[in-house]
Amino acid sequence: MRVRNKPWAKDFIKDHSEYIVDNPEQWKGKWSNRFNKNQPIHVEIGTGKGQFIVEMAREHPEINFLGIEIQETVIAIALKKVVASELPNLQMVHTDGAGIDTFFDEHEIDTIYLNFSDPWPKKRHAKRRLTSPKFLDSYKKVLKKDAPIVFKTDNRGLFEYSIITFNNYGMYFDLLSLDLHNSEYIEDNIETEYEHKFSAKGPIYKVIAYFNKNKED
Amino acid sequence: MRVRNKPWAKDFIKDHSEYIVDNPEQWKGKWSNRFNKNQPIHVEIGTGKGQFIVEMAREHPEINFLGIEIQETVIAIALKKVVASELPNLQMVHTDGAGIDTFFDEHEIDTIYLNFSDPWPKKRHAKRRLTSPKFLDSYKKVLKKDAPIVFKTDNRGLFEYSIITFNNYGMYFDLLSLDLHNSEYIEDNIETEYEHKFSAKGPIYKVIAYFNKNKED
């Protein structure tokens, strides 16, 4: 998602350091200290304008949520929602998802959400896709052994790529939906801003994938 | 596919035993003897009215093709096309796909095609789906080690089920398309009768899956 830079963004972020971190390495292994309660941590990489993670945090007070976003104006827009929500179980992280294993301890995270990630459609940019094998290496390090990646997208090419990549990496699929909004799983679905806008134009794809087989077939 | 029984079917099959087999166990390990040349064997399970396999055989004289179909009238319709084609590299097998490992030797086959298989949508019928784990057990036995299953369907539920099943079985994906007819792979695509009729109504899904990892990611 590209948005025009907003002049107020930088100051707004500075003024709300109780809800946002821009030095994530310093919190490695200590993320629970950012929250009231010591409870499982779920992370959304590329949290965009924040609708998904704010709703998730509201619905799941038993989980601590971290939203990672690199674009300053975008995370400032999300931060507005976070500040207004006054939720004790929601924090923003202003950084790049690429360094995730530099600012989380091994097995510190209970779930990673990837929602409508940049498809990087050109083949020479495949390594930048958040579902490429190098990213999977880092997710595997920071996720608990029985913890999933939950991935949604409307981009067919990115989903095809990701299913092949997850599968050939040796990950196990639990849920797979090729038309989430016309499936039984829609009941529990929490939408992103983008999803709300684009789900009428074509199918939303979703997969839940694990690095370890924790279920019997 | 259900079709009304045709009275001519039984006699037509009997009269063309040079193109059709109804005692497949007797050909186990000797399928090459049914053909002019000793060359790789590709098998379509559930060959329906035969358009796919006849066109494949015409385009690939370097491969021997076997079309398996259980319904008498349906295979008789396919057999009409086979007889008319006079192709030396195409044979029909009137039997059920379930017994495939009783009438092929280990590693006798170079490719299995599953095209628009019966989706058996009820969960209690999942074991009847041609992509269920029990079928995969038998395919693995009869396929060569580096040989693929090539699967096409327009049935979303069956494709979701099959991708999860292949994945949890430990298979590797090569090609995956979630909209074959709007993809780069359409050029080489050979349609079935059913596909020709239904591809305008929704996406055709396709995957090529291997039991062994024969490529580097």
TrEMBL record, chains A, B:
It is an enzyme of class 2 (transferase). Belongs to the class I-like SAM-binding methyltransferase superfamily. TrmB family. The gene is trmB. S-adenosyl-L-methionine binds at E44, E69, D96, D118. InterPro entries: SAM-dependent_MTases_sf, tRNA_(Gua-N-7)_MeTrfase_Trmb, tRNA_methyltr_TrmB_bact. It catalyses: guanosine(46) in tRNA + S-adenosyl-L-methionine = N(7)-methylguanosine(46) in tRNA + S-adenosyl-L-homocysteine. It comes from Apilactobacillus timberlakei. Pathway: tRNA modification; N(7)-methylguanine-tRNA biosynthesis. Catalyzes the formation of N(7)-methylguanine at position 46 (m7G46) in tRNA. Its EC number is 2.1.1.33. This is tRNA (guanine-N(7)-)-methyltransferase. Keywords: Methyltransferase, S-adenosyl-L-methionine, Transferase, tRNA processing. It comes from the Bacteria. One of its GO terms (molecular function) is tRNA (guanine(46)-N7)-methyltransferase activity. Pfam families: Methyltransf_4.
